[in-house]
Design a protein that fits this description.
The termini are far apart. With 268 residues, the protein is mostly helical.
């Protein structure tokens, strides 16, 4: 028995919600019916990253498709809750519109914001009021543990800094990373994996602190560094092939020499 769904030349948002309901119905798709929030949560992350990839590639056709996939994830989660009688897509839309109005008093209220900084300050103030005046610890706890680690560290540090828990300048953050590196060396000498992991985490956390002072996004900086490594590694592999060098049998000195050549080529 097929599901009744009107075939059109062009569909709208209502059609989108109808087809999600149809797919999850008893007569719908067995795979879609079986899914839960937990079973597709990783899909949500993957689709979001693919949308970010489209933005980075400045590809509007790709972005159009990937945004649709992100919306599909939102709609599926909403449909699962609608089936339980908890909320539906209209409730989600109401909540986000209400939040946007409340957190933009400089647009919909009597607060003035003449530039981006003032607008962000207005947003932050309205957000804290809507949260009922949270303590600093509560604000920090609200940063999801599921965030990418560098992003989470930067947000936690920023919220701690708002109540004065911060270095006076970047110099303090820089000194701290040297201190943490020394502690990592001590942990390495002990050979305890748990201690090494703990101290290495402190090194990364300190590095994020420096990035925050320099107004550098840690995630973007590491992504850029990884991209640079990949580009140079490809050049090293190319040079090795041209010179008849087997990288697997080369010494670290030979590979370093190729790496230096690759750096010069990529910097030209």
């Amino acid at each position: 028995m097929s599901v009744d769904f009107e075939i059109k030349d062009r569909y709208d948002f209502n059609d989108f919600l109808k087809i999600i309901t149809a797919l999850r119905s008893p007569e719908g798709c067995p795979w879609d019916r079986k899914q839960t929030h937990e079973s597709i949560r990783k899909n949500f992350i993957e689709e979001t990253y693919e949308a970010v990839e489209a933005i980075n590639k400045q590809n509007p056709d790709m972005l159009r498709e990937e945004l649709g996939d992100v919306m599909l994830q939102v709609a599926l989660h909403c449909e699962m809750e609608r089936e339980k009688g908890n909320f539906d897509m209209n409730d989600v839309i109401h909540d986000v519109v209400y939040k946007l109005v409340i957190r933009h008093p400089h647009v919909f209220g009597d607060v003035s914001a003449e530039n981006e900084e003032e607008a962000l300050a207005s947003w932050d103030s309205a957000k804290e009021k809507s949260k009922g005046g949270r303590s600093a610890s509560e604000a920090i706890d609200s940063v999801p543990r599921e965030f990418p680690a560098l992003m989470r560290a930067q947000k936690v540090q920023k919220r701690a800094a708002k109540v004065g828990f911060d270095w006076d300048s970047c110099d303090g953050a820089v000194d701290k990373i040297y201190e943490e590196l020394d502690e990592l060396k001590i942990a390495m000498s002990h050979g305890d994996k748990s201690e090494i992991e703990d101290e290495f985490g402190d090194v990364l956390f300190s590095a994020v602190n420096i990035a925050r002072f320099l107004k550098v996004d840690s995630e973007e900086a590491l992504t850029g560094a990884t991209d640079k490594f990949v580009s140079r590694f490809k050049e090293v592999e190319k040079l090795a092939a041209e010179q008849g060098i087997n990288m697997n049998e080369s010494t670290i000195e030979e590979l370093d020499a190729l790496w230096d050549k690759a750096k010069k080529i990529k910097n030209e």
